[in-house]
Amino acid sequence: MTYIPSADDLEVITREVWTSFLDGDPAGLLSGSDGVGAERVTGCVHLSGAYTGSIMLACSAPAARDAAAALFSMQPDAVTQTEVIDAIGELANMVGGNVKSMLPGPSALSLPAVVHGQLAVPGAQMVREVHLTWRSEPLVISLWQQAAQAA
Amino acid sequence: MIVVRTLHLAGYEEHEIVQAANGREAVAAITAAPPDLVLCDWNMPEMSGLELLTALRGAGWHVPFGFVTSEAAPQMREQALAAGAMFLIAKPFTPEDFQEALDPVLA
Description:
The structure holds 2 protein chains of 2 kinds.
Chain A: H1 7-21, E1 29-31, E2 40-49, E3 53-60, H2 61-71, H3 81-100, E4 107-109, E5 113-116, E6 124-134, E7 137-146, H4 147-150
Antiparallel strand pairs in A: 1-6, 2-3, 2-4, 2-5, 3-7, 6-7
Chain B: H1 2-9, H2 23-32, E1 38-40, H3 49-58, E2 65-69, H4 74-82, E3 87-90, H5 95-106
Parallel strand pairs in B: 1-2, 2-3
């Protein structure tokens, strides 16, 4: 039986990344959120191999800006789209890399991709999702699996 | 950028840092001016970190080399060390992780 990381696993990994790079305060990331609205930034890394699917990190635009500011030690007002894309890509890469280590291998991890808005991966279905709140803004981490493997 | 920031936090701000966008740029930069240490991602465009290390060693370059990567499965660590890497630092990392790995090379 293949072990698929649980929603709690996703939360633990995300907390570790957030605490190390963005806050230093484990209490800064709260469990639960009302979901991310349309004005979102989505980072994604893809896995292919023994496990084929994706790990996505979606957050509100203000959360993405604040994450970039924290990650690169900048004032939020000085953050440009370049830093937002770099930050969300890097965060998705870190969360995805750690999730990968809990999945069956061998699998290859892609370079991260970042979009403004919602990202869909054709043929993939969501198998895990965790809702979090950071600085009063929503953050959602999800694990997807290609339908052929999920069946 | 987070690696550079962490290098500064770890106390290496006096060192000159040269960045390469991909493996091919890295080969050109390393062979043009061999650095004291190469810090390299595992996943990169053009050429993976492991391919870069293998190419350098195959060409006779023995510059100290370490990986900084978002994944650290045991077999990756084994592959990295077998190919000639000195260490593999997994993200998320701390400035102390950098000091522990880099001090033996740079201090």
